């Protein structure tokens, strides 16, 4: 293995390299930002699109999956953007929460006026040398991730949101909608800073046109200050031919209450990576997920949670329902550093296989270097319980309806992580819609 | 109402029911008693349509129609109800949601209009009160974290709401203390009617002090070996099942 061996580039990698070389000078930001881009691209270039050889991508060979790297879409005009948003809503019932809207990766809405919340477009902030841009990509834990690095290299569209304590219980939606005549790629990036003692409900939805092979590499970063409260909900209802890579990077201060719940159901291929680092003691963390797959869908959720300081609690619960020939991946790694005593971490991944040819790969890991901790992980993979099915049918529920009720019951637990009733009702409607489509 | 003719049933090539014959008339409360392993629970499952069993021979007629080809949901819609010995927990599904789903599923199968939510709520509330089931229990996921007695009461609540023709009670007395047993028995007795039949499966005579049967059948080795009136239960209580084990083995 010589260091001088040059890896063969795929068409997608070659296109990305050429695009970076061509665009590097026109991307927004000062020379320091330019250097960050170059460093980030170098990191990406070192590995290229990750393959199975990288442990974190063992089940998800992005080099094989992302065969080409389509050009970004043109910036949509207002009328087109409005149409795309109207036809690609992730939620059945709209929420009465202000939103930032993105179409094909472009920020298309004026930032909503919310008292105590400052929102600036990312490209403008980079071009103006806004001090907050220095906080982008701050989480060390995520530094080496090639897909995050790729997003950093090209970052332009997106926003920086800062929530101050004066905002009270603030709410914000990030709505991403995708539709175009031809395949395209997009790489939006949003940084959300929640100040000390501030509170935010952040609802992130992704939806897109079916039959369109677009690629997304989206990043949301959350930095929560001491005593902050953040409830994050993420819906991936991308189009059925979409390939969606996403990264959630979270840095928590002391005594933060943080919860994140993700529902994945739409795209042909998805990889959602969560990096969470505790920088202050006393954080309370809940991370949940529900994934519903059918056909030949593939969905990977990969979580890395770093307990770097003492006295933090974390609960992780992920449920995956797989029908037909779909494939699910859950990788969860909890790291407990040597001085992170009194950590309490519990992680569970459960899969329900509805068909013989569905596949689930579960890989929970604990890396514990402290000695006074409580940590547990578990992974299960099962089918519908015949006895319960009989019980429900004996009460008069036809088989499909009984199965649907059992799937709903299976997914119900992580859905409880979502505190807002209007959001949870939408999630339940999405689950019911998925089950109804099962026929 | 229910007529079982020469029923032969295997599970994993092991014979459980061996030419069983049984008739339960309209409005009759029939008790099935027998030692452990005599096939009592199997009988309840086979009437309800559980899949694990192989029906080798025989017929089960409900109002003259052979129901063996029907799945459990279709049988339920025809009026078969099984109160389980061990009711199952359904975390994540609220009891009211469940009740609404099952009541409307049966109504739909029978071509009846679905119940409106207020109508459903009123029916559930009234029936729940009779069984000392409080509103708090109705808000919880079905049977989730319920005590043994609460689960059995919830079975009887479902029975009351679904208004079946044939109620099968599988060891409903198991795990109940005397107070819980009385509540459950009162609930069952309130449902007795000239149009409704009961098959009360029990190992002990105790339940039959509270749900007084019209007929008592003794089951051993997969068939009915003796039939009598309610006094037969008392005789069994006094003498045990030893005679019947022997008789069936001969």
TrEMBL record, chain A:
Cite the InterPro entries for this sequence: Fe-S_cluster_assembly_SufBD, SUF_FeS_clus_asmbl_SufBD_core, SUF_FeS_clus_asmbl_SufBD_sf, SUF_FeS_clus_asmbl_SufD, SufBD_N
Coiled-coil intervals in this record? none
Where does the SUF system FeS cluster assembly SufBD core domain lie?
A: 184-410
Please list the residue ranges annotated as the SUF system FeS cluster assembly SufBD N-terminal domain.
Answer: 34-67
Family per record: Belongs to the iron-sulfur cluster assembly SufBD family.
Q: What protein name is recorded for this chain?
A: Fe-S cluster assembly protein SufD
The protein's organism comes out as Camelimonas fluminis
From TrEMBL, chain B:
Q: Does the UniProt entry include the keyword Metal-binding?
A: no
Q: Which domain of life is it from?
A: Bacteria
Q: Looking at the keywords, is ATP-binding present?
A: yes
**Keywords on record:** ATP-binding, Nucleotide-binding
Q: Which residue ranges does the record assign to the ABC transporter domain?
A: 2-246
Family according to the record? Belongs to the ABC transporter superfamily. Ycf16 family.
Matches recorded under NCBIfam families:
sufC
Protein name (Swiss-Prot/TrEMBL): Fe-S cluster assembly ATPase SufC
- Write down the species: Camelimonas fluminis
């Amino acid at each position: 293995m010589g260091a001088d061996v040059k890896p063969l580039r795929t068409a997608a990698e070659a296109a990305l390299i050429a695009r970076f070389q061509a665009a590097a000078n026109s991307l927004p930001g000062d020379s320091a930002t330019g250097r960050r881009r170059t460093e980030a691209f170098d990191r990406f270039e070192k590995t290229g699109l990750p393959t199975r050889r990288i442990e974190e991508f063992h089940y998800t060979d992005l080099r094989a999956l992302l065969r080409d790297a389509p050009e970004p879409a043109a910036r949509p005009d207002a009328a087109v953007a409005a149409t795309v948003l109207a036809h690609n809503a992730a939620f059945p019932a709209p929420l009465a929460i202000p939103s930032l809207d993105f179409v094909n990766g472009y920020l298309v809405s004026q930032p909503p006026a919310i008292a105590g919340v400052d929102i600036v477009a990312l490209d403008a902030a980079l071009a103006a040398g806004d001090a907050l841009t220095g906080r982008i990509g701050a989480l060390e834990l995520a530094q080496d991730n090639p897909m995050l690095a790729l997003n950093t290299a090209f970052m332009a569209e997106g926003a920086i949101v800062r929530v101050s304590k004066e905002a009270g219980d603030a709410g914000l939606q990030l709505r991403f909608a995708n539709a175009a005549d031809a395949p395209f790629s997009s790489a939006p990036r949003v940084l959300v800073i929640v100040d000390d003692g501030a509170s935010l409900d952040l609802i992130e939805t992704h939806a897109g046109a079916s039959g369109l092979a677009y690629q997304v590499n989206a990043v949301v970063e959350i930095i929560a200050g001491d005593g902050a409260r953040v409830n994050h909900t993420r819906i991936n209802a991308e189009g059925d031919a979409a390939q969606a890579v996403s990264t959630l990077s979270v840095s928590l201060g002391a005594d933060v209450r943080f919860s994140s719940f993700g529902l994945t159901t739409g795209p042909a291929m998805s990889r959602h990576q969560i990096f969470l680092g505790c920088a202050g003691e006393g954080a309370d963390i809940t991370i949940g997920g529900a994934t519903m797959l059918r056909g030949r869908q593939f969905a990977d959720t990969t979580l890395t949670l770093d307990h770097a300081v003492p006295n933090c609690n974390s609960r992780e619960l992920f449920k995956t329902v797989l029908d037909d020939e779909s494939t699910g991946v859950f990788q969860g790694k909890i790291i407990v550093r040597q001085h992170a005593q009194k950590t309490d971490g519990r992680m569970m991944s459960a899969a329900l296989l509805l068909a013989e040819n569905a596949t689930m790969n579960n890989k929970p890991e604990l890396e514990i270097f402290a000695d006074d901790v409580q940590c547990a992980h578990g992974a299960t993979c099962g089918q519908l319980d015949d006895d319960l099915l009989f019980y429900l049918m004996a009460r008069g529920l036809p088989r499909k309806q009984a199965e649907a009720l059992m799937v709903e019951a299976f997914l119900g637990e992580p859905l409880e992580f979502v505190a807002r009733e209007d959001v949870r009702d939408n999630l339940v409607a999405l689950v019911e819609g998925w089950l109804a489509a099962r026929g | 109402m229910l007529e079982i003719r020469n029923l032969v049933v295997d599970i994993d090539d092991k014979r459980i029911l061996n030419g069983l014959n049984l008739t339960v008339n309209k409005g009759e409360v029939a008790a099935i008693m027998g030692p452990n392993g005599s096939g009592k629970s199997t009988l309840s499952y086979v009437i309800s349509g559980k899949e694990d069993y192989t029906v080798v021979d025989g017929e089960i007629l409900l109002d003259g129609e052979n129901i063996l080809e029907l799945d459990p949901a279709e049988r339920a819609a025809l009026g078969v109800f099984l109160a389980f010995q061990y009711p199952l927990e359904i975390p994540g599904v609220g009891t009211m949601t469940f009740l609404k789903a099952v009541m409307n599923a049966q109504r739909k199968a029978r071509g009846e209009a679905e119940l409106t939510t207020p109508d459903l709520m009123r029916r559930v509330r009234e029936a729940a009160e009779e069984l000392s089931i409080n509103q708090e229990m109705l808000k919880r996921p079905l049977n989730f974290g319920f005590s043994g007695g609460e689960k059995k009461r919830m079975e009887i609540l479902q029975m009351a709401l679904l208004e079946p023709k044939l109620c099968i009670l599988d060891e409903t007395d198991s795990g109940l203390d005397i107070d819980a047993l009385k509540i459950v028995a009162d609930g069952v007795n309130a449902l007795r009617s000239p149009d409704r039949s009961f098959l009360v499966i029990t190992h002990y005579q105790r339940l039959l002090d509270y749900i007084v049967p019209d007929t008592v059948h003794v089951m051993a080795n997969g068939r009915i070996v003796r039939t009598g009136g309610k006094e037969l239960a008392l005789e069994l209580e006094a003498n045990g099942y030893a005679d019947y084990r022997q008789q069936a083995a001969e």
